[in-house]
Design a protein that fits this description.
This protein is α+β, with helices and mostly antiparallel strands. The chain has two domains: 115 residues, Immunoglobulin-like; 116 residues, TATA-Binding Protein (2-Layer Sandwich). The chain is 22% helix and 42% strand. The protein is built from five helices and 16 strands. The strands form three sheets. Strands 11, 12, 13, 14, 15 and 16 form a six-stranded antiparallel sheet that branches. The protein is elongated, with a radius of gyration of 24 Å. It is found in: Cytoplasmic vesicle, COPI-coated vesicle membrane; Golgi apparatus membrane. One of its GO terms (cellular component) is COPI vesicle coat. Keywords: Cytoplasm, Cytoplasmic vesicle, ER-Golgi transport, Golgi apparatus, Membrane, Protein transport, Repeat, Transport.
Length: 265
Amino acid sequence: MSQLELEDEVQDDLKRATGEFVNDNDDANKLNRILQLTGFSDPVYAEAYVTVHHYDIVLDITVINRTKETLQNLCLELATMGDLKLVERPQNYTLAPESSKQIKANIKVSSTETGVIFGNIVYETSNVLERTVVVLNDIHIDIMDYISPAVCTDAAFRTMWAEFEWENKVAVNTVIQDEKEFLNHIIKSTNMKCLTPVSALDDECGFLAANLYAKSVFGEDALVNLSVEKQADGKLSGYIRIRSKTQGIALSLGDKITLKQKGGG
C-alpha cells in the first residue's frame, strides 16, 4: 500500500473508533433533522441542522445570499423560550452575491421541557439605508431527545405518584381499536418503559390499565398511567395521566401524546 492509502486507512480506523462514521441509514435521520428557517422566495435562505448532545444543542445554520448584491453586517439573532440559554454572542458577517456561510450556534439546556428557539437574520445592503430583517421559522426542541425508558419498583412508583404535584390528564382519542396495540403505540411514542408485567395484560377483557416510567438525562422522573376501555362500538375510551415533579415534563409529554396517539404510525 502507498503512504497515502495507509494514511487513509488510519483515518478511517480513527473515525470508526470515535463513532464519526455514519451508516447510510443515518442519512435519513440527518435529513429529518434539517429544518428550513426561511422561505425559498426570501432574499436570504437559511436552514439548520440540529444536533442534541444531552445538555447541549448545536445548530449548524447554512445561510445563502440569493441576491446579486453583497450583504453587509449580516447577523443571525437568536432568542430562546423555556430552559434554553444561548452560549455565544452573535457575530456580523459579509456575504458576497449568491454565496453561502455556515454559522454555528450553541445552546445550553438545563431541564427537560419542550423549548423553542426563534430569531431573525438582519443585514444591510449598500443601496438601502435601513437594515432588512428576515424572520426565521421557530425551532422546537423535542422532549423525546431527553427521556429514556427506566425501571422502578411498584412501591417506588406509587410513592412518586402520591408525591408529585403536577398532573396532566389526556383523553384517549385514537383510531386504534385494540388495547394492547394502543399501549405499544404510546410506549413507542413516549420512549417509556411499561412496568406492568405482560401476564397482567394478557386477558381479553375489554379493559387495560398499565403504568409507564421514564427518566430524563437530568434525573427527573416521568410517570404515566394509561387506562383504556373498549366501547360497544369497538372504539377505545379512557385517560392517559402523566405525573412529574416539574410542570415542563407533564405538559411536554401531554402535548407529545396528544399529537401521536391518534394514528397508528
